[in-house]
Amino acid sequence: MTEDDFLKDLFSKLPSGDAQITVPNGDDSAAFTPTPGMQTLIACDQLIEGRHYLAETPAEICGAKLLKRNLSDIAAMGGIPRYAVLSCNVNSACSEQWLKDFHHGLLKCGEEFSVHLIGGDLASSPGPNAFSLTITGESAKPIQRCGAEDGDLLFSTGEFGLSFPSEHHLHFTPRVEEGKFLSSYAKAMIDVTDGLLLDSQRLLKASANTLDLTFLTQEIPARNFLAKDASLKESFCDGEDYELIFAVGPKRVKELIERWPFSTKLSKIGEFKKGTGKILDDEHILLNFINKGFDHFQS
Length: 299
Prior knowledge:
By secondary structure, this protein is α+β, with helices and mostly antiparallel strands. It folds into two domains: about 5-140, CATH 3.30.1330.10; about 155-280, PurM-like C-terminal domain (Phosphoribosyl-aminoimidazole Synthetase, Chain A, domain 2, Alpha-Beta Complex), CATH 3.90.650.10. The chain is about 25% helix and about 25% strand. The protein has eight helices and 14 strands. The strands form four sheets. A six-stranded mixed beta sheet has the order 8-12-7-13-9-14, with helices on both faces. A hairpin with a 7-residue loop joins strand 1 and strand 2. Helix 2 packs parallel to helix 3. The two termini are about 40 Å apart. Its EC number is 2.7.4.16. It is an enzyme of class 2 (transferase).
């Protein structure tokens, strides 16, 4: 099968686009009309063999994970996901069937979250298989990382730690619906991919105010796997949790808890106070694990 044959077969499996797509896949570029009154969100994430998945991981699961990683970014902005373009760089050992299954997994996930694949690129080179997906979304008022203030509370969705041994990193549900709901409550938000400690530090640094963050360590929801709860360090540093952490003003906390409509766990895990940029535990001891989380330039 040639590249053109593969793409022709792929295009035949794509669902029909919505009315806002003015130039569909198959041209040099796709085009769509933005929704009036909405800001367009755009994010990009990669999936690399040996880094984000093992060679024996089923292709459909890999395809779904790539899209879900991007969906988590849109969720962190309180946005609605819309369109995606995909770039695939595979080696000669990657079979045509594996690549078809990869796309099938991605398209099935896209159908679940109403995301249309509207273009992409195929290439072949030595080295590990690598994929990159760019997603667009929309929001009337995107939630940024920079809004935390003195007195705000830090909340989280879900659980943390042991993502790799439990395979949560492959089978997670991106918090898209939760993110849309939280757009009415969150003053700052981020999705946890590189570890709870590292990503909460990013929230802290992004704030326009100089703050400290005190974690309520007994309240951090640890993931359980094989009858074992994640340790505090695993909960803080393992990463690939794909949960949302967000700052909420103290006057909105009661309403948020009472109106939370999801089965997803909602936890109050910390508090922002005026300070010097430190992260502390509830005994005011500086949290400074040697491995704070995942860093692509250090790991």
